[in-house]
Each structure stands twice: as structure tokens, then as C-alpha cells.
Amino acid sequence: RENEGHQGPAPPFSAGTGAAACSSPATAFTFAAFCYMLALLLTAALIFFAIWHIIAFDELRLNPIAQCNTLNPLVLPEYLIHAFFCVVFLCAAEWLTLGLNMPLLAGHIWRCMSRPVMSGPGLYDPTTIMNADILAYCQKEGWCKLAFYLLAFFYYLYGMIYVLVSS
Amino acid sequence: MSAPAGSPHPAAGARIPPKLGGAAAPAGPGLGPARPQQNGPAQNQMQVPSGYGLHHQNYIAPSGHYSQGPGKMTSLPLDTQREDYYSGLYTVPTQNVVTPSTAHQQPGAQQMYGRGPPAPHIAGSTPGSFQGAASSASHLHMSASQPHSSFVNHYNSPAMYSANSSVASQGFPSTCGHYTMSTVSNAAYPSVSYPSLPAGDPYGQMFTSQNAPTVRPVTDNSFSGQNTAISHPSPLPPPPSQQHHQQQSLSGYSTLSWSAAGLLSAQDNLVRNHTGSLAAANNNPANTVADSLSCPVMQNVLPPKSSPVAPTVLSSASSARMPPTANQLVEPVASVTQPSELLQQKGMQYGDYVNNQASSAPTPLSSTSDDEEEEEEDEEAGVDSSSTTSSASPMPNSYDALEGGSYPDMLSSAASSPAPDPTPESDPAPAPAPAPAAPQPSKLAKPFGYGYPTLQPGYQNAAAPLNAGLQPGNPVYSGFQQYPQYPGMNQLSSSLGGLSLQSSPQPESLRPVNLTQERNILPTTPVWAPVPNLNLELKKLNCSPDSFRCTLTNIPQTQALLNKAKLPLGLLLHPFRDLTQLPVITSNTIVRCRSCRTYINPFVSFIDQRRWKCNLCYRVNDVPEEFMYNPLTRSYGEPHKRPEVQNSTVEFIASSDYMLRPPQPAVYLFVLDVSHNAVEAGYLTILCHSLLENLDKLPGDSRTRIGFMTFDSTIHFYNLQEGLSQPQMLIVSDIDDVFLPTPDSLLVNLYESKELIKDLLNALPNMFTNTRETHSALGPALQAAFKLMSPTGGRVSVFQTQLPSLGAGLLQSREDPNQRSSTKVVQHLGPATDFYKKLALDCSGQQTAVDLFLLSSQYSDLASLACMSKYSAGCIYYYPSFHYTHNPSQAEKLQKDLKRYLTRKIGFEAVMRIRCTKGLSMHTFHGNFFVRSTDLLSLANINPDAGFAVQLSIEESLTDTSLVCFQTALLYTSSKGERRIRVHTLCSPVVSSLADVYAGVDVQAAICLLANMAVDRSVSSSLSDARDALVNAVVDSLSAYGSTVSNLQHSALVAPSSLKLFPLYVLALLKQKAFRTGTSTRLDDRVYAMCQIKSQPLVHLMKMIHPNLYRIDRLTDEGAVHVNDRVVPQPPLQKLSAEKLTREGAFLMDCGSVFYIWIGKGCDNNFIEDVLGYPNFASIPQKMTHLPELDTLSSERARSFITWLRDSRPLSPVLHVVKDESPAKTEFFQHLIEDRTEAAFSYYEFLLHVQQQICK
Asked: How many CA atoms lie within 13 A of B528 on its CB side?
């Protein structure tokens, strides 16, 4: 809905820990609530990505080239989705939520900066991916992200309800 | 421990028990003391492998079943025969035995058979054996049946592989595969058949092979020694008569004593039978006797006894036909496989092997060169259990060896060494032998053998190794070294069964060395690989360190312990090394663990006759019915004596289960740069000339295909279809979308289109002389090559002379010449584009490897170009500043490299899997390949000069095991279109204390692994990081060691003796082109050095890192070795410091791929005149790359020494004569790594720096 538009800046809704300041009253459906809903849906997608990532790395041992080819195209969309709702939260002035997402955002940027020499999109190089260190890192990364997205999912749900209720 | 121990040990136990059983105790003692006593032959066999011997004894004692006894016996007989051949040489102690046995012998021959199994089996087996035998026999006895000979021929011939198969089919069609083993090296059973020996002198070959086996056992490689025996089990009905038993090398040595008793007519099968019988007799006796003390002796004695026994056995056998207990081995001439060069090298390196080969050798050595491939194929060796034959064969081998350099003896001795000399005993016995021997003189060999046998093991070792060891690193030596150190221990441990020496103190390797005070840290003799602290038997069975080494020969029990030691844990592999002796096994079923797919190997344990326990995953597996039959001995129920279980390096002929598609033919495509730059450099002339010369030597069969492409700014294809009157050139100028003009006629059959190919090669060098095209469209040309090759796979050889400047994959110059000597940051070590990597992965997927020859005078971005070879399992050659007239030494190098490149063995569509005991895991791989799975490397091509390294980590504690094993299996298609699997298995003990870990450090392997890791670090992080990591490796390991040694003064920098060279080697690495800073180094040179570090096998890499320096103006014959009738002086190694260079001297530096001879200003004019051919120092030219052949003693010595060094490596190094004060001397002086340079520490300074870091 549109009415959120102006509300956004005003109410720093924040959910989460008690620290969060909740505040102003508003209409039933604020921009912040919309942000949370959007984030909720997109996070569901990201969870899917993370699961896919984990499965792919589990199967990597079978065929690294094919797995890298399936994984690499998904990297950029995932990062863009995450960056997108970070921006949305920024617009909604959901500072706490944004803050919680900043480490992951930074991590994504760092990954992009340090990616191997590749002509195509993506991060994973089939020639080095089987290196035990890199493989372990990627697998750990997959599990961590899954955990983060799951927690974030429930956090967004909570945030959304909180916003709706408080308004 | 117990549990695990159980498994590993059990294995030993399984095998041993029988043998050792009673014997064990006696054996142990027996070995040492016994040696002398033992009768010649028997003892020899027994002793040699002391372990084996023991086993035999054990076997005997416990069960009659085990053929071991027989085996030995058999071998004896053979020996006797052989002895005859040799006649005089060997006394025939054995013969005596033999003779008696002979009576039995005939039966005896069968004994093997008999033993085993029921007649039926025998029958089945026999056929194979017969054939094999026959063939072998024929080989051996030339006269023998022609048919056989034919077989032989097969072996010899290129067809060899086929031959084997054919044989099988013929003979044994139905059943079983034969096992052909070329050489079975088990020390224990030297028997070998020498079927392969086609050449003619079967005996000689046989002998050698046998000998070899024996020898080897001692130290390193059991391979060589053992080998050989391979029998074809097939069930043919064979011609019983033929059984040649060759077996035995083990005994062989001892054989000396054996004397050939009867060689007899060896030619005849009869003879064989006799031998066989003899052997059998022996065996039997042995068994019986076993109880009694020393086996060897017993055997001798036994004969009589055996006879009875044997008979029984025999009888059964006889029905089957036992013929030949002897295993026939076809030895492959094993050597064969390896080209002559290899042989030489190997020979050098592994005296043992050499010997073996030698056996076949006489011919082989010389001839082999041609048929490398063939050689491999053929090897069937009889194994030994039937030692009888072996004995004979061994002898010959020895002889050969002797000829070669006395190796044989060594070998034998070595074998025997464990058990002291058999000779004495044998001698006594022998009397009979001589007579026989005389009769069959056929081959024989050379008399040297006698002397050796008598020698004490120690001596023998010493002597032999040297000879053999042209190459310094031979395992053999190491083995020897160890011996002296803990003979007692070994024996003890062996008798204990598998426990390793862990408990034993290792005084030498743990001796603390104060580095800052030890002025001459570098030993004057080459550094050998340490031998894992295993019991004697396992030691003998263990893989040769030349093929397979671990940085820590004692594996720490836990990751925590490993972390404490601060040393890298990893494996260094040279899996496709040219071997002179290789058991080749043809079998319907390749026995593997059902859960982890490990191939059965010498370190598994047999729980009982029908079950074996995997040594990697501990699963209990059934022994297949077919495996119960031992083709070598023709006996049944002895799975532990099969060649697979007696050799840690074996090759299987794989069935269609191991193929995804029919084996591909050999396909070679040459992609040549013909831009102006390339034409100017003039490499085409050299290449075309080399190709013309070696066209017939390209590995391949009748299906071999070849093609050519050239490119500048366009791509030119050559239609060579048969029927054309001249080659047609097709030009494709659309480089953005390359297509193949006539896909079917660009790769043509080498034989059908040979004339056209020759026309093209003759025309090519002049076709582009006037070209003005300066661009290079390498990328599109590679894409076209990929399209051309993808239906079949094969090898693409790319010759490039400049930066690719057009089309896909074009590169920009990235090097800033001002940064060449920067001490800060070295950039651009990684690729600029992933085009070449992607292309390589595509190629790898289509089983195509890309080999790059970069001949450029300017920066060509090797870092990017090298990717095309790195990930497709190709190889990289780099010739900086190449010009065919201006830089003749590079031209010469290219020429020599091409010769090797074109003619060396090659394996196609290969994969290599590395497995290790549960608890360990592969961490990172180094080399040129694509990692397809956590333990699977995809290798489009495999060549004998490729080395690999693997980092390991310890995932689970190894507390419940006392041994860990590593197995690499290389599955490839030979150039003859045969699918083969080469399996290496390495066994190491597990230790729980830090001191034991330090005691077992293989410093050379550790350095090579560190170098590989440092290359990765340089590319992924930065060069300075990598350098810091190298220094930290020294600092950490030495401080970790220091903290374990409490009583040392803290001010001193102390290292265990095993690590005393570690700081020196690390300093050498820091000054190596790849890692040095501050000295002007071109980026391509640096990247090439890194490529070499990643892909060179250890032996070559070590010379690159730390060259060898010798003083050559005063060569003497003191300590010289004899190789092929040449006396090769062995000057001591000098440390790499200018302080060792005196103006009055001349020094040779061996850098692996380059030799420098530095002539001091005050060098004796006599030397200059006698060796260089110039009257005085002033008249020596600035550029001199050859030593003239002058007829003076010093010239002869210098040349034979250099030739010997050259022969020990695949690529012939270029020689530079450097005058003191000539500009070229900087090249020489930069290798003096112990000296200070502007940018780097001297060795002493480096030590102080390390000490400072430790104290921090």
C-alpha cells in the first residue's frame, strides 16, 4: 500500500530486543510493515538459496565443474536480494534491523572483491574449490548463512507483527 | 594399538606366521648369524628377504600348505640350473640339494601345483603356467619350443601387452587370467619368470630379474627384487614340460651356492621340471624342516626330505602337471616399459631394478630403449615361490647387474642381507650345481655374482648401492644405511610381526646437532630417503621412496601431535615413473575391498585362508576363488603369496569394467606458432627435425593418429588424408568463430599417411620464412584444437613464442621491468584471464591434455598461459631467449627435451585416486591435474616425468592403529590401447611421541611439500607471505624441537639430525628463482620456476632447489662405481659456497636441468688440456657447451661422470663451461646458496636469524 510512504521515516519501528525503540503510532499498515513482509518473502527465497548451496557443496565431490556452474549464477542474485532489502530497511529507517544485516552485507562485498579471476559471474572456481580449506570454508559459510536466514526469517516475522500490532 | 595393530600386524602375522611360525624366532637369529651358515641357495632365498626367509620358515613349520617352502626350494633348483649356466660362478651347493630333489624335481616342479590344490586347479593353472612357462621357457631356452618363443616375441614386441592378453586367450582362454607379473619383487620369492625375455637369452634375463629382486628387497624397493614371478595361472594344459621356474631370485643370491646345478638343459622344460621339482623338494623339506632351525639350511637338507613331501604334493600336482612351478615371469622386460633411458636411469638409480632388467637385460638394456612400452606390458614374472627357477634366474640377474655395476650382487646381497649370506651354505651344497651349470651355460652371466654372495650384507650393501645408485637418492641406499643402524632391531621387530621400531631408539636421526657450530652440515654423499621404521618384512615390501614418499615416515597419532611438531604432513608421488621392474597382473577379478575399493596390497591381513581384512577401512572381505590360486607358484590356497600381496607396486590389466568407453588411440596434435617472431626464433626447424627422427618412436599402436595446425593471425589446418599427393593447407581466417574445415582428415593415421606427414614436416620450416604477420591468435587456435581433439582425446602440443595478441584469450603485458628486483611486492603471479583455465577444463573433460612449449624472448605472461597445461594435466617447457643460432644452448636443450618428450611413455584418459587409512584425509593436491573429487585427480594424460604432492590432515586420532597405509591407484590407457591400473602402496608406522615424529622426518620430502605450499601461498596471497611462511616453518619446527629437548642450552640452535638440513634447504628455497627477492628475476622465469616446483617429481626438484657441487679436476677411481663397463668416479659433494671454490680447481655443478663447469683461473693446465682440449686457461672460449672426447684418463673420468649424471634423469641437461671472470659466472654463483648476496642472508646469517626468531 502507499500510505506507508511517508510514515517510513517517522517511525523507527524496531523490533527485536527490548532495546529497540518502538514508537509511534501509525496506521495499520505502515511502510515498515511492508518492508518486513517483503524481507520475509525474500528471506524465504534466500533460505532456499542457502539450502541449495549446502546441498550443492555436499555433492560437489561428484562433479565440481557442474556444481560450480549451477552455483555461480545464484551468487549474484542472492547478494542482490540481500542488498536490496538492506536498502529497503534503510529507507524504512529500521536501524536495528539494518545493523543486524550489515555484517552479512560487508561479508558479501568482501567476497565479491576477492573473487578469483573469472570471466563469468560467481565466486566458485572449480579448480580450487576442492581444496580442503576452501571447501570447508564454503560449507561452513553455507550453514552459517542458513542459520542466519532462518533466524532473520523469524525476526522479520516478529518485526512485522510488532509493527502491525503497535500501529 | 592392539586392535589396530592386529589388523596391520595381523597381516604380517597372517603371512608371517606360517613362515615364521617356528622359524620366526630362529629366523631372527638365523638371519643375522645364520647368514653365513645357511646353505647357499636355500638360505639365500630365505635370507635374502630375511623377512621372507623367515616367513618361509614359518610357513613351513606351520603348514605345509604354504608353498613358501617350496618356493624357495624351487628357486633353488632353478638356481641350480642357472648356475649351470653360469656354471662356474655359483657353486652349487644347492645343486646338491637340488640334485636330490631333482629326482623329485620333476614332481617338484609341480610341487607348487600340487601343493595347492587339487589337481583340477592345477590343471587349470597349469595351462597358464605352461604357456607362460613355455613362453618363458622358450625365452629362456631359446631353443625351447618355438611356439613359446613366439609368445616371447610378443612380449618383446610392442605388442607386448597384447601378447599377454593373447597368451591368455590362447592358453587360458577360459579361465583365469594369468597373472603375469613381471617381476615380482618379493624379496622372498624372487622367482621370476622371464618370459618376456624374448631376446633370447632367457636365462640371462631371468637371472637378472631375479637378482634384482633379491637385491632390492633389502632396501627400498622390494620391487625390483621381488618381482618377477608371474605366472600365468591359466589353466591350460600345458605343456608341462616347460615349466621354467624362474623364480626365485631370492634364493637366487644365495644361489650362488646353488650353483647351477643343473641347469641343464635348461632349455628343456624338463629341466624346469626338475628345477621345479627341486624347488618343490626344497620347499617341502623346508616346510618340514622349517621346524628345524634355519630354513635355509633346512632347505638344503630338506631336499631329501622334501622329496618325500614333494612327491605327495607333486603327485597331486603332477596330475595337474605341475610343470613349472616356476613361475614364469615374463618379465617384462619390465624394464621394457621403460625406455632405454629409463632403464639406464633406473638402473642407475635402482641397481636392483636394473639387475632385474638386466636379467632380461642383456638384451633389454640395450634394446629396451626402443620398446619402452612394450616392456611394461610384458612382464610376467614368475613369482617365486617357486624359487627354484628363480634361483637360476637370480643368478643371471646378478651377473647382469654385476656387469652393469655389480648391482646384482648387491641386490642379492641385499636380499640376503637381512639374512646374512646364504652363500656359504649354498656353496657347500652346490657342488652338484656346477656340473649342471656347465651344461647350460647359456646365459649367464657373469661371474661376478659369486663374490657378492659371500659378502656380508653390509658390505654388499655398501658396494652395490653405490654402483647401482647412480642416483643418489636411491632408496636402496637408505635401506642400507638403516641396516647398519639397527640390524638387530629389524630382525627383532620382524620376528615380532609388525611392530615397528618405534620403540627403538634412533640414535642417528635424533642426534641433536648444533647447527651454528656444525660447519659441514652437508654430507659428502647424496641424502637418501629415510626408511619407515617398520619391521624388516614390511620394509622390504614397502613402496620405493622414488615413487612414493611421506614427509613424516613416522605418522603422528593425532592432529594435536602433528601441530606440536610444526612439520608439514604430506605425500610426494611420482606414480608413473619409469620402472625397470614392474609386476603386471592379468586377472579376471581384481581383488578390492568392497567398501573402500582399496586394491589388495602387501599390508592387508589375512584372517584365514578365505578372508582378508582391508588395511585402510578394516572391513573384512572374502578372498575370491580365483585369488586362491597362485599363478606364480602354481599352487592353491596361498592368497598371501600372490604377486599383488608380495609387491607394493603392481600393475593390473583392467577389464572393461574400468572403461567408460573403448580405450582411445594415441592422438597427437601439434599447434605451432608461425608468426614472424616464431620464424625468426627458428624453432620450427628443430621441431620438425626431431619429429621426423622420432616419428616411428611415438608411443602408440596401429591406430595412432597425428595432426598439425599452425597459426599466426589466422589458423592453418593441414589435410593429410591418405591418397593426397601432397599435404593440403586450409586457412581459416575467421578467428572469432573458429570452425574445422574438414574435420575428418585433419587428424590422420600415422602409418597410413606417413609420407604426407614427412612431406609436411620437411616443408614446414620453410613455408613461412617470409611472413610479415606479427600477430598471434593463440586462443582461437586452441579452441580449434579442442574441437579437433574432443571426439577422441589425446595430447595437444602447443608451441608459442609471444603474447597472444588476437582473438579470445589475448593478453597484455603485465610485467614492469623496473620491478624485477623489487623486494616488496611481486605482482601478477596469477593468471590475467580465466580463458586458458576454462579451456583446460574443457579439454580435461574431453581427455585432452595441452602441453605448452613457450619459446620467447620477451614477456609472454606464462602465468596466464600455463593454466592451459596446469588444469589439463599437461606439462610446461619454457625456453627464455630462445634463438636457434644466437642461443645454441637453448636450441640444444629444446632438441633434447623434444626427444624425450616425443618418445617417453604416455598414458591417456587417466585418473588417479589416493586412498589412505581411515582417520587421515587429503587436504590439498599439488601438481598438474584437475581435482574431480576429494580424492580423485583427473589426468587427461600422464607422463613419467610428472610428480604430485598431497597435503594430509589427521581427522581422527590414530590411536587404535599402529600402521597407516596410503595407496595411489592410477588408471590409464596405455599407448597400446590397453587399460591399466598402476597401484602403489606405502606403509608407515604411527607414533605417539614427538621425538619419534622428529626421528622420522624426510627432510627432502618436507622441503618439496613446503615449496608446493609456498607457491600456492604466493599466488593466493603474496610472495612475501610465502617467504615468511617458509622461514616460519624452520623457526617453528626448530623451536618445537628445542622445547622437547630440555637439557640443551637455550642459546644454541639445535636440530635433530633428521632435520639438520632443513634450514639449509629452506634458505635454498628462498634463493630459488621462484621465491627470491632483491635479485632481478623476470616474471616469466619466476612463474616457470613455480610451475616446475608444482609438477616436478622430488628427485628433480631437489636438484633444482639445492644443486650438487663436485670438484672434478682431481677425479680418482677411489670409490668409483662401475656402470656398463665404465668406471664412474664418485667425487664427494661440496657445500654450495665460494669458500669451496679454489682457483686451482675445476668444479661441476649439477642443477638438474643445467650443468655448469667452473674453471678456476689457476686451474692446472694439464687438466685444461686433457679435459677441455685447450692449452691454457686463457684460450678457453667463453661459450663452451661440450667436453671434447679426448683420449686421456682425466677426460675419460670427467666424461663418464657427467654422462652418468645425465643418464640419471629424463631431460638431458645442457652443459656450460664457465670461466672464472667470465660474465656467465653470475649464473653459476647465484647457485652458491650458502653465500651472502646483496639481498639475502648467508647460511650462517640465516641460522642466526632463525635463532633470533626462536628466542623471541
From this structure: 24
